[in-house]
Amino acid sequence: MPVPSSRPHARALLTALALVTAAATPGCGPSDGEGGPPQAEQPPAPVEVARARAGELVDEWVFVGEVRSLRSAALALGAGGEIMTLEVREGDRVEAGQLLVEIDKRQASAKLSAAVSTRRESERELRQARREAERAAALGDVLPGEEIERDATRADALEARKGRLSAEIRAAKAQLSDYLLTAPFAGVVAGRYADLGQWVDPGETVLELVATDEVEILVEVRPELAPHVRVGDEVKLRPAGGLAGLGRAQPAQAAAEVLGIVPSLDPRTRTLKIRLRPTQARTWLLPGAPVEVGFPIRYRAGQAEAGQNQGVEGAAIAQAVIVPRDALVLGAIDTRVIVVDEGAAKPVVVEVHASAGDEALVSGAGLSPGAVVVTRGNERLRPGQPVRPIEGGDGTSEHEAAT
Questions:
Q1: How far is C-alpha 121 from the geometric centre of its chain's CA atoms?
Q2: Which residue stretches, if any, does this entry annotate as coiled coil (predicted)?
């Protein structure tokens, strides 16, 4: 049987190899002399821009404080006994000096009455003794000297007894005040811990009274805030927690003044205590209520001021600028802004010192006030990529960005 020839297959393989080689060889195949049509140049990427600026950036550090009454007291009686009068309940407003509680004082009243009667009797005896002493002195030539001296001594003893009885009466009257409880200041009854007819012991708390018209705020803050706050500074107060909704009835913000700063850290919490006084009355400033306290922190780009920017490197602040937060490109290793330099994107690594609202205080090599930074479209830009600025959030136009 004839064997099939393999020559046609070999010729086909050689032809295919020749075509592949010709296609891979420069200058081979259809060409216009440049190896194919030229690639079209990529158009500039449209981006929104803004200008970096100098000036002031106002940040706010917020901490939660507590409203406290300037005056509050747990009221108790100085004596024990059965409550005979109880005039108030929780929530009642009372005036200074108003009678609140009275306990059974019959025994003390009887003691006072007995002391008064004894003094009256002693005064009668004293008057009689003085008359006898005066008569004896007048009859000095007739009466023995011992009798005259005895009458004078008796008068002196009765005078001393009268003094003792007067002191006992004063003590009995003072003791009677222990059976009465009056309001030491005007305020609202915050707690009632006894009822009519109940027996109370001396010193046992019966009522709690708070003055709601005068309050202060105590707030604990991080020690880093200390260089930024001084006595007399103004801060902002806002309702915290469940009281936030009360802002619908009254303004949800109030001003307060820094009254005092404790110059040492709490050994347990390592925080600094600051005392504030509200300068605006609000119904949500209730004793015991939590409030948010906003401390303004001011940074000046291009100027490091002593006492204002402590805690942030002064040299860095002096070289810093303020840019929109949208200009920041956050990376895994660093943060950058894209500067428009001669119509091309130029990434600049920056350090973020502070941020407030929609702006940030940053510093970076060659970054100065007036620099044009990309605020939208910056995530997809490559170094050196042509860009076409369009009007941004601050109104920087294409023409302004190019100049």
A1: 67
A2: 112-175
